[in-house]
């Protein structure tokens, strides 16, 4: 735990030094101390701007995204008892795309709403639809996943429809790039928003860690252990929906982290949620900070959408974990 | 005062699954729920556990309507071992048993000393102490059932509800498991298919057919050739071993001869 926090802090510091403009760890330290009001060390203005206005907020949002998506993945997988569940299983990312497209292409809501606002509203609408569908069909875990799949298809189709019918190629490119997950141009406002949502979400989920343990043998066993299954499930689904919708609205749909990081963390610390939740959040944060740093640097000056980077870096790592796990069994 | 069902009826989507059933187990007793597939045994157990609410009648715990008791309170008194509890999670035997301590948690966590003691006692009682660190998915079917019973024991319940716990077990493990359950100092209600096991281990049995109680009493009173023919539509011979004071039921193949009037 302490080690994880240290690794995260170091990762962020090192990631901030990476990039086309030359910044050293000493520069980063000086800038940080200056801004925290602990020192007044002269630093070149350009370096200060690169560290404080560009790379640091970006690394922090990356960390929040990794932690939040990993956390949501753990919750969804345990709650729905499905190893393939991820933060987007409730149709949230496709709802976000539709919302973003409606704003970005059709111009509904305009500048006041922005792509992010459209995405946030779209994802919550999709989530509401999934809950409604799941409830109409009986409300068990498989139905929730089916409802999520159905709603994902619906919103993907709507997104394509709006793009084909109304968008010109520039608009399409802008929206698509954003949808693949992008941390370009995040600001301190975004850092605050993501950090608050992810921190509160983690606190709620940690409080319910033992409840998630109780779900490991299914709803009936959980109920017989004194859990109000329907109430707790709704609460935790809403928490994951809010976290996911917030992160998607800031950074787009970053795939893979929420699906795979929980498995990697389970491999390291076991299935008990009081350990699994913090472990996944920290691993997700470190992972995303590095993936973002690499996708920023590797193809510079052309930025690679970070969602592409997560899969390209993550899949080989996951294969290594899976095969090692098989050997130890 | 314990857990009891008073003329409970459960109507699931228009079908009367349980129809006016009364169950009043004595403290410490082992009650067998018998009856063919679909006779309402599992549904009755779900009603007794408060997972579903009866459409009519009332289930009470210490005299209070179960619908008004908090789930956590129910879980401190009533533990359930269901038919096919399974998981994909790589969880150890000890951690499964520790799940039984969840109802005893306060708002800010459990009492680690009491939890460890209860888990150790439950493992010892079920003979699983040496297997505490084994992984769940590596256990045999019989061991898995025993782990679920240990988990239920860690709940320190007064009542234990078991839904066909001997399913898929070989005869050795069937006998061992029921001997374990009847030794426990709790009231148990067990849904069973095997009439001979019921005769061997239950103090009283209740026979259900189409959601209704058709007979209740000691195994010797209830399990007669006539009743078995009526409920299961099977020919049987019931032998009484006077020396051991026990029934054994032999089944005959072929249809029941139509009675001639």
From TrEMBL, chain A:
It is found in: Cell membrane. CDD domains: TM_ABC_iron-siderophores_like. It comes from the Bacteria. This is Iron chelate uptake ABC transporter family permease subunit. It is a multi-pass membrane protein. Keywords: Cell membrane, Membrane, Transmembrane, Transmembrane helix, Transport. The chain crosses the membrane at residues 59-80, 101-132, 144-167, 188-212, 232-261, 273-291, 303-322. It comes from Rhodococcus jostii. Belongs to the binding-protein-dependent transport system permease family. FecCD subfamily.
TrEMBL record, chain B:
Coiled coil: none annotated. Keywords: ATP-binding, Nucleotide-binding. PROSITE patterns: ABC_TRANSPORTER_1 (PS00211), ABC_TRANSPORTER_2 (PS50893). CDD domains: ABC_Iron-Siderophores_B12_Hemin. The keyword Translocase does not apply. One of its GO terms (molecular function) is ATP binding. The keyword Nucleotide-binding applies. Residues 3-235 form the ABC transporter domain. This is ATP-binding cassette domain-containing protein. It comes from Rhodococcus jostii.
